[in-house]
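Supplementary Text 2. Reproducibility record for the structural model of the 402-residue chain.

All settings were left at their defaults, and a single model was retained for analysis rather than an ensemble. We include the record here because the model underlies the residue-level annotations in Supplementary Table 4.
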Amino acid sequence: MTDKDGVMKKPGYYSSGEFAGMAHISVRTVRYYDKQNILKPSYVNESGARFYTDQDFVRLQQIMLLKYLGFTLEDIREILIEDMDYHFLGNSLELQRKLIQDKIEQLQLVEKAIADTAEEIRRSENVNWNHMLDLIHLTTMENSLKIQYQNSSNIAARIRLHSQYSSNPQGWFPWLFEQCQIQDGMKILEIGCGNAQFWTENLQRLPQTISVMLSDISEGMIREIRRDDRLDSGRFNFEVADCHELPHESGIFDLVIANHMLFYCENIPAVLSEVGRVLKTGGAFLCSTYGPMHMQEINELVREFDDRIVLSAEHLYERFGRENGRGVLEQYFQEVVWRPYEDSLKIDVPEPLIEYILSCHGNQNRYILDRYTKFRSFVIKKMSCGGMTITKDAGVFFSKKL
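Retained model, structure tokens:
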């Protein structure tokens, strides 16, 4: 069988020209997608002619839609890992929705800055260069916001795995709430609050008269939680702040919370000194961390697939973990107590575990994304005899400022 150009082809296959014509794009674009490893032909004959199927056309439609929505080709390559994994696409679309919300706000600010500058020129025939610098800042926000929201998406992926597959029916956030011993009238600071899920999961248990400051270094995180109507303005305030240098007076908080974030800090002693400074005498500091056995089976799984994979650039528990945390805290606080959270994960489907792995801070995407189908089959095989049990080795240190 031949096409209109006389090229031999198999039944059910389209030549590059036919394929491009179906989508109203150029053959050059089709070839570019091939070169970028986003859309490979289903068949290449001996002379090098490329052929595509109806299934390839569905994928091309997905690519064109995602491009229209503002995704880069690099984004699309990661999103279109496997058609069956729609939760990956759903998470990516949610990320893009948040970016579009910010872009709308950003363009409104740009419009105002332009209008203010134009009005000033009409009035005084001078340019306010501060307004022009604001315009430059506003128009270069997008990449940093994207990185921040990707971090938020990764946090959500890790939380989902724990919340859906934990063997402890109480769940991490309800258990953590009990450790905080929150009472009426307390003034609370959470540093590194992330997506604020600790608070949204425990809203029904919160006293009405507390005051909570949610603080994070990520502007994207704070933008996201500001939009959450559940975090009412009567009890919650928000700030973008570096926990190494807290923008608060000394001795004003009854409780400071650091949930799985202290080991990320560049200068842990400086952070602990700041926490001690802003706490009242008798105030409490609650910080969670984990030990060397935490999630060890996942590390073993990916290393078995490819021994070049490292899910984290460093062992964070070595910086601040279950075994050394008490000694670090006792230099700044008293009555330091470790409270373990008894739990494990029982996972019987591959997608949430793979999503968790891809969300980690290491080099895994370099070795998994291009071999996703093979990796998924590898995980399914490992789960074929009753799923996987994952060790958890986490808890909190509770300490006092006396």
